[in-house]
């Protein structure tokens, strides 16, 4: 069974005002700049001082993955509390903030080159690493999962507010990330050689600092033998992150089987994927998504059911079918992160309470 690891980016916030706080060096100082444990995983800084990033070790069991996510969220929150702050799994800061770049040479070079596109960017994603067995398999998988990634974005959408305003999107993070030169949906590559040629050509332009700046919705990891699914917002509830991870693994396994069996990748133009991604970002699970077969609007629930049918054999073989079924039922009842945020604002009229509620849910207290 393929192993899965998850990286989560978290906001550091004032527990009372909800404002994002420039405190990652102070939060991480007791750990010497980064925290880890013998079981694997870590807590580190990110591009902005208002962020922390956790990562889990590779796990075959979704139960173990959920335990890891909850452990690292608690670790991050305890570390932030010790420094006078909290952490919140929010993909954008609901309240206005002027981010401050973390003291790392690569980040400083990014700001020097990309200006406000880097210095003003404060977004938090959920990145799922799924084990891959060869470079050829990784590209075959990327070519086949690309049509399903907007559905994962809709499930995870958790960034309706930014700069003190309702953005009208369920996932504004997915709009903000497009300021990078290479981001979002990709063309089909066809081969590992073509993928490497794409990277070489991109670096030869001297626009990018390095190959870590391929901020696509999914990519072949340069550090691990994995496909990295990067389309998702960070999820308020750790169980939603596990749902995204389980579906990502099932998509990877289904794509690998299709490739092995000689089934071609869907011949979908990237422009259609951009439209589908925008639709998912705008509405999340609240309206229509674009059907990945017809690229016509269909109710989000129907598109998610189509995704489930597509990956059902893989979910059953991994033992994740019941988990995914139950998690989706719960998600549909309570709503994704965007729905939770808007519901809190409707109830309280206070964006600070939106952040506070997210911090409680992040730590498992709600």
UniProtKB/TrEMBL annotation:
Keywords: ATP-binding, Ligase, Nucleotide-binding
Family: Belongs to the glutamate--cysteine ligase type 2 family. YbdK subfamily.
Chain's role: ATP-dependent carboxylate-amine ligase which exhibits weak glutamate--cysteine ligase activity.
A GO molecular function held by the record: glutamate-cysteine ligase activity
The enzyme's E.C. designation: 6.3.2.2
PANTHER family: GLUTAMATE--CYSTEINE LIGASE 2-RELATED (PTHR36510:SF1)
Species of origin: Occultella gossypii
Substrates-to-products reaction catalysed: L-cysteine + L-glutamate + ATP = gamma-L-glutamyl-L-cysteine + ADP + phosphate + H(+)
Entry keyword annotation includes Ligase: yes
NCBIfam families with a match to the protein in the record: gshA_cyan_rel (TIGR02050), PRK13517.1-1 (NF010041)
Protein's UniProt name: Putative glutamate--cysteine ligase 2
Top enzyme category: ligase
């Amino acid at each position: 069974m393929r192993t899965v690891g998850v990286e989560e980016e978290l906001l550091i916030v004032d527990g009372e005002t909800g404002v994002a706080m420039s405190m990652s060096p102070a939060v991480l100082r007791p750990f010497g700049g980064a925290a880890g444990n013998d079981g694997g995983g870590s807590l580190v800084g990110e591009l902005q001082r208002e962020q922390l990033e956790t990562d889990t070790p590779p796990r075959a069991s979704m139960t173990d993955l959920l335990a890891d996510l909850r452990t690292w969220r608690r670790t991050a929150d305890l570390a932030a509390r010790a420094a006078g702050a909290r952490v919140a799994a929010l993909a954008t800061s609901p309240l206005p903030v002027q981010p401050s770049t973390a003291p790392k040479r690569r980040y400083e070079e990014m700001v020097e080159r990309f200006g406000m596109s880097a210095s003003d960017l404060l977004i938090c994603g959920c990145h799922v690493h799924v084990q891959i067995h060869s470079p050829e398999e990784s590209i075959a998988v990327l070519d086949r999962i690309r049509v399903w990634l907007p559905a994962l974005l809709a499930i995870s959408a958790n960034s309706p507010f930014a700069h003190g305003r309702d953005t009208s999107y369920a996932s504004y993070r997915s709009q903000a990330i497009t300021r990078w030169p290479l981001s979002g949906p990709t063309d089909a590559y066809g081969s590992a050689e073509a993928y490497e040629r794409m990277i070489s050509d991109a670096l030869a332009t001297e626009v990018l600092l390095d190959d870590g700046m391929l901020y696509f919705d999914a990519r072949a990891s340069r550090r691990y033998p994995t496909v990295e699914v990067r389309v998702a917002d960070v999820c308020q509830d750790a169980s939603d992150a596990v749902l995204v991870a389980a579906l990502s693994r099932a998509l990877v396994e289904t794509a690998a089987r299709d490739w092995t069996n000689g089934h071609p990748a869907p011949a979908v133009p990237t422009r259609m994927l951009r439209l589908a991604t925008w639709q998912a970002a705008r509405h999340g699970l609240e309206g229509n998504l674009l059907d990945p077969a017809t690229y016509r609007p269909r109710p989000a629930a129907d598109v998610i059911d189509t995704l489930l049918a597509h990956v059902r054999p893989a979910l059953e073989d991994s033992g994740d079918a019941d988990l995914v079924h139950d998690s989706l039922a719960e998600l549909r009842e309570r709503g994704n992160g965007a729905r939770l945020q808007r519901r809190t604002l409707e109830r309280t009229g206070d964006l600070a309470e939106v952040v506070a509620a997210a911090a409680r849910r992040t730590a498992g207290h709600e």
